[in-house]
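Progress report, Aim 2. The chain analyzed during this reporting quarter is listed below.
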Amino acid sequence: MKQLAGAIRIGWVIEYKGKPWTVTKSVHIKPGKGGAFMQVEMKSVEEGTKTNERFRSEDTVEKLMVETRDCQFLFEDATGLTFMESDTFEQFTMPSDLLGDSRPFLTDGMDVKVSYIDGKPISVDLPLQVICTVVETEPVVKGQTVSSSYKPAILDNGVRIGVPPFIGVGDKIVVGTSEANYVERAK
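Predicted structure tokens for the chain:
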């Protein structure tokens, strides 16, 4: 199925040079001069090799038709990430590096969608947003409100992101899993 390159997301399986590739990182870049483009990091489904490719936003890519099943993440060990299919309770293992930079957001017991090509699991779609707790950041300054400047913070999963000045240690926040970015304070 043809898709605009500007819509490429982590977890997609696309055909590139005649082979299936799983998207592990996708960043939309709009330079000051020239057209926007997608910088995409991909991993070969067949060989496990990685590559970086730049697609213009108006280019089209072939998104492969895959079967998606509801699964639950169980645990990670030396062999990789272990999942269980929600319908059949069948367990299977996938490589740990499959999720790229989104890996820290995968937690035990999390419900995910796993994509299959020809009965073989090839990619994992995490929820778009997760709730994390801030474990380290600069102290809250009284009277400071939302501004365009963000301060660094470390989350309970070890990820470092930028948060607004009013967020303090112990606050629960909503984080976008695809770009590891602050969305809002959790309710």
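The chain is about 0% helix and 55% strand. The radius of gyration is 18 Å. These observations will guide the mutagenesis work planned for the next reporting period.
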